[in-house]
Structures are given as C-alpha cells and as structure tokens.
C-alpha cells in the first residue's frame, strides 16, 4: 500500500530521512516480555504497551512506515504495569530516552501540566491527511488538557462490555439480556460454570494494578452506588455501597472465575476466552478484535452486550492508548510522522488488510465505523463498541457528584500509587488471604492520606 506523503511538522526541513540500522525485537504475543534496541542517530525510540494491536503495528512498521519515510523505529514493548512505570519515570525525568510513548487519557492532564508532553495542535492542523476532525469527540476531549491544547493522538479507543459464548449459552438454554444487570450476570456465570470441560462461568481481572483489577472493579462500584471519594474528598472505601460492590466482584470471581484469578489481567482473560476456558468475560471492547480475528478458535461464537449495570443507565469505561511525544525529544517532527502514520486512516486500512478487518485498532475514528469492510468483519461488536464509547460519562459515572473526572480511575496523579496499593489488597482478598472487609479497611486508610492533600 502506498502512503501519501504527509507534511512534516512546523519548522521541519524537507529532505530524505536518514537513520542508523536498528534492531527491532518482535514480540510474538501479548503476554511476553519486550526488548529494547537503541540505535541513536535519527532513529526514533518508541515505548509501548504489549497489547496485540501494538504488537501488530510493530511487525508492520519496517516494511511500511520505514520503507516510505526512511525513519527507523526502535521499539520497547512491555506489559501494562511495567510500561506505565517506565513511561512515568522517563517522562518525569525528561531525559529524552524515548521520543514517543503510549500514554492514556489518565496521564495526559498531569503530564501536560508538568510540561512533559509536546502539544500536537499545530502538527495536526498542518497535516491535512491526518484529518483530526475524524477522531471521535470523546477521545479528542479526553486527550485535551486544561489549557485547551491537544497532547496525544489515540491509537485505539475503548469502553468496556460483556462478551459471552453464544454457542455455550444456546446449548445450556441460557439467554443473555440485551442490557444485563450484574445480578443477572452472576446468575448466568453459575449456570455456565462447567458447561464444557475446564470452562469457568466468567473471567474478571484480579491482577494487582490500578489499570488492571481496579478498572473493572471501579465500574462495578460506580453502578452499585459507590465512589472512591465524595465531591468534598471524603474517602468512601468502607461505605456500604463500596463494600457491596467489592464483595460482589470478589465473590463472583472466586466462585465462578478463572483459576489463578489473583494473577490474571487483561492478557490472561483474553487468552482464557480465546482458548474456550471462560463462558463470559467483562473487559475492554478492544478485546473483541482479537476474539474475532482470523484463526481465533472462538471467531463467530461470541456475543457482545453493554457493560452490566445496577443503579445506573450505563457503566462502561472510557479509555484510550494514545501516542504522546516527549517534550525533551530532539526529534519532534519525525515523531509526528510516526504518530500520524500509526493513528491515521491509512494504517487502519493496512492493519485490516494484514491482520484482518475485525482486528484493526478501532474506537477512535468515525470513518472506521463507516468503512464497509470493517462493518462487515466487525458486525458482531462494532455498534456495541461505538455506543459504549459514545455513552461513557467520565464526569458523571455514578449516582453522586465526584471531585474529578474519571470512570475507572480517579483523575489525580496520586491515583497511580493509591490504585495500585488498593489493588494489592483486593487481589489478596481474591486469593483468599484476607477478607474484603480487611482489604477495604486498609484501603480506606490509604485513601485518607490522599484526601488530606485535596481538602
């Protein structure tokens, strides 16, 4: 596929790209360790999470982006918890080791405020082929900081929904409601448990990490009437609603969830669902592309419905893995060329042709949902995903006012530490090493320390 020549960023000089030879360590799957190879010179160093769509991009980069632009890319690809730590360390130090990194709508406000990110408005405005207006508004808004400037471009956008085995449900005479409640899901998990050899009723994240177990758990807390903090920063982790939701989640995964749930995150649940070890999975909408990819053992067997609810109309999260450019980088113009390619319409076409249309990094562009090949390949989940992203309410995700925006997280820098420590307590409860009450009492004390900073 021929890539149209994009204009370089503001102030760039037009000329052939030069680079030194770099070794690219390809990651074969989403659960393995990545590698680093820094070539120096004009090569770009890109740090990214090891989700399947990123791994596919890594495979396609040399043959397509580098061949067209002459810009070589050195990738470092790491699991989610590891990549978050490395990104925070590198960007906060502003050493410029990495030119581009996958950051999320959680980090953008803080990274931008601290001057760690290069604003991208001027690049996007001059790069007409990129078509910034085609980016879905919830994603654009979530990557725009308080100063009104854009600081990242989405690689893919996601909400959360419930995935289930249609064939297994049919065999067992089970019916999935079009908008299930969490109690209905729990009842269905009990019925589906053991439906096939080695199959559990549901897979839910239990792995410690603010972006792992805390993400789905917090959506359950929200819809069951709980909140981490009240509008005036009163911690509520031991409140009845928070307890009810957490106990419900822990009991569900302990009774009908995957083996080793306390160490299972997104990647492990994706593998369980793909291999037929789970009848249901509540998680990111991005997982559907892998389930429906060519060669997937469960392709065509999965049904998709909105995130389960209790007291709210919707409960899906809003999240994006996006490309952020480090302010300290000396290669801003080349970095934009990579970002423009990796988040562009043409890359989605390339990914569709190479990896299958169901597996493109969607959830970010209106044009994707109008593309006939994508609509055909992703017919099982495209509309549910689109609606989930559109209905997400980051400023009003529960039944009471919040002090910050955020659905599956609290929008303050301290949440990375707080959420991870609370996650460790929750995972201990999932593992059976302590009760939910014990976990939440310890978590409440941690939240009180954060609240003191904001009262």
From TrEMBL:
<dbReference type="Pfam" id="PF01547">
    <property type="entry name" value="SBP_bac_1"/>
</dbReference>
<protein>
    <submittedName>
        <fullName>Sorbitol/mannitol transport system substrate-binding protein</fullName>
    </submittedName>
</protein>
<dbReference type="InterPro" id="IPR050490">
    <property type="entry name" value="Bact_solute-bd_prot1"/>
</dbReference>
<dbReference type="InterPro" id="IPR006059">
    <property type="entry name" value="SBP"/>
</dbReference>
């Amino acid at each position: 596929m021929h890539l149209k020549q994009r204009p370089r960023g503001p102030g760039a000089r037009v000329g052939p790209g030069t680079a030194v030879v770099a070794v690219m360590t390809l990651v074969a799957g989403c659960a393995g360790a990545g590698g680093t190879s820094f070539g120096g010179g004009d090569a770009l160093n890109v740090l990214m999470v090891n989700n399947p769509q990123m791994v596919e991009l890594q495979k396609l980069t040399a043959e397509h982006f580098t061949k067209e632009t002459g810009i070589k890319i050195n990738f470092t690809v790491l699991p989610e918890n590891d990549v978050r730590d490395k990104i925070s360390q590198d960007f906060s130090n502003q050493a410029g080791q990495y030119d581009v990194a996958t950051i999320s709508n959680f980090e953008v406000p803080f990274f931008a405020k601290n001057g760690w990110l290069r604003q991208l408005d001027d690049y996007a405005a001059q790069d007409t082929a990129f078509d910034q207006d085609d980016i879905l508004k919830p994603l654009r808004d979530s990557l725009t900081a308080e100063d009104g400037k854009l600081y990242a471009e989405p690689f893919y956008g996601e909400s959360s929904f419930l995935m289930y085995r249609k064939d297994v449900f049919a065999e067992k005479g089970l019916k999935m409601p079009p908008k299930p409640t969490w109690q209905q899901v729990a009842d269905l998990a009990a019925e589906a448990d053991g439906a096939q050899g080695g199959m559990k009723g549901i897979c839910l994240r239990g792995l410690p990490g603010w972006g792992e177990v805390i993400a789905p758990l917090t959506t359950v807390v929200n819809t069951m009437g709980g909140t981490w903090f009240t509008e005036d920063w009163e911690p509520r982790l031991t409140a009845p609603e928070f307890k009810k939701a957490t106990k419900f989640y822990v009991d569900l995964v302990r009774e009908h969830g995957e083996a080793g749930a306390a160490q299972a995150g997104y990647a492990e649940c994706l593998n369980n669902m793909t291999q037929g070890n789970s009848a249901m999975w509540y998680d990111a909408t991005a997982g559907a592309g892998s389930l429906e990819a060519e060669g997937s053992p469960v392709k065509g067997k999965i049904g998709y419905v909105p995130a389960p609810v209790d007291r709210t109309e919707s409960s899906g999260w809003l999240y994006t893995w996006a490309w952020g450019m480090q302010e300290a980088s000396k290669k801003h113009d080349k970095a934009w060329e990579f970002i423009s390619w990796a988040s562009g319409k043409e890359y989605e076409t390339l990914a569709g042709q190479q990896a299958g249309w169901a597996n493109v990094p969607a959830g970010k562009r209106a044009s994707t949902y109008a593309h006939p090949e994508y609509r055909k390949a992703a017919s099982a989940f495209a509309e549910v995903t689109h609606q989930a992203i559109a209905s997400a309410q980051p400023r009003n995700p529960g039944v009471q006012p919040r002090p910050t925006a955020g659905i599956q997280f609290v929008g303050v820098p301290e949440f990375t530490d707080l959420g991870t420590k609370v996650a460790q307590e929750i995972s201990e409860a999932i593992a059976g090493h302590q009760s939910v009450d014990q976990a939440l009492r310890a978590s409440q004390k941690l939240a009180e320390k954060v609240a003191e900073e904001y009262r």
